[in-house]
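By way of example, what follows is a protein record of this kind.
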Amino acid sequence: MLCTIAAAMLLPALVDLADNDRGWQAFLASSVVTFFAGGLLVLVAYDENPPRLGVKEGFLLTTVAWVVIAAFAALPFLGHGLSYTDAYFETMSGLTTTGSTVIAGLDKLPRGILLWRALLCGIGGLGIIVMAILMLPFLRVGGMQLFQTESSDKSEKVLPRAFELTLAIAAVFGGLVLVCAFFYAWFGMSGFDAICHSLTTIATGGFANYDSSFAHFESPAIYWTGTIFMALGAMPFVVFIKMVRGDPTALWHDTQVRAFVGFLIAISLIMAFWLLATRNISFFEAITLSSFNVTSIVTTTGYMSDDYTKWGNFAIGVFFLLTFVGGCSGSTAGAIKIYRLQIAHMLTRSHFLHLISPNRVVTLTYNGRRLPADVPFSVVAFLAIYFAIVGLFAVIYAGMGLDFVTALSASATALGNVGPGLGDVIGPAGNFVPLPDAAKWALSFQMMLGRLELFTVLVLFRPEFWRS
């Protein structure tokens, strides 16, 4: 993994070199250091008979990998004047596709560092999908066992199937990036902007090349392109693979996708009518603004085409709630995710039916399959831990001197990997007031927690894990 990151650093180095910018030296030096560390680990750990990974090793490996990769991927930022705290925060934000930034003046940055931010989102987004599909279902975290794509058989057939699935996911991801970049360029973006923004759009990362995010482009065609591809990035990539392999209706037959698309349309229409009632604009402008910004927050991308905190208190309340929703499982989106909300609704409905008719037998099914017995508990436990962590870190941030609105929204958007929050500091039009370093490290930890489905990290804090 480190050697791959080292190779990726050479791309922005070449861009800076072509632009006669001295930033290429920072990328080259970082690449050498990272490749040396990664190569040394490969040599030390080489074994002709690779060990089999169990559940315990899976918990440990997924967590340590994110911490270590972010530690080395942050090195190029040091050559551009950032402290290591800021560099690590920016890197973790990119790799977890959160999209929060501590860098002001993006419009004036060298192209190399802008490309590196986009690559971090792309690398992180692809890694998130692969991890969510291949690793997390076996760890049985938060109901992810619903989406188990491989049998629990430990035979030699599992590795080739997993490898083929990974290649297919990478192909779909790369194809969506290329198509998205083509349309961005077609509708007026420069080639460089199109590549960078397509990477962060499909990865639902939200890093933009300008301080004003997508408001810089002032193009409805670009806004609608971003809306469509953000939504595609938040859909299950396995379903895309089924479509490519001859099942064109697979996307719509997925229960998650139908609920996700329906939710986006409903909320976008509500906010469009709210804008019509409160602002003197046309319906097309209202639906364009609402669709882009609602999709951006629900998919946890974090782009903005307008400061929605100026749309009124109703809009502020809606957008705060949207930070908890998220996209589909098996996508690059973060937060709670649609399927957990669907299962929570099913459990609530089942409970009320039992209250009305105690002897009634209610069978819980999802996507045409009966729910495994442990899924309801996993989902309820996930939701309880999720909201507890949001509340706990909100209190911690308030103790660090942040106002309550900033503290609460910062906690929610970091854990949900959304990016922009509420208030003057971390809102969609934030004024880059410096946060305490301790807050940046806590936010980085929360961003990682959100990406590793909470349980994957929290289980490491259990003494029983280490004793076993």
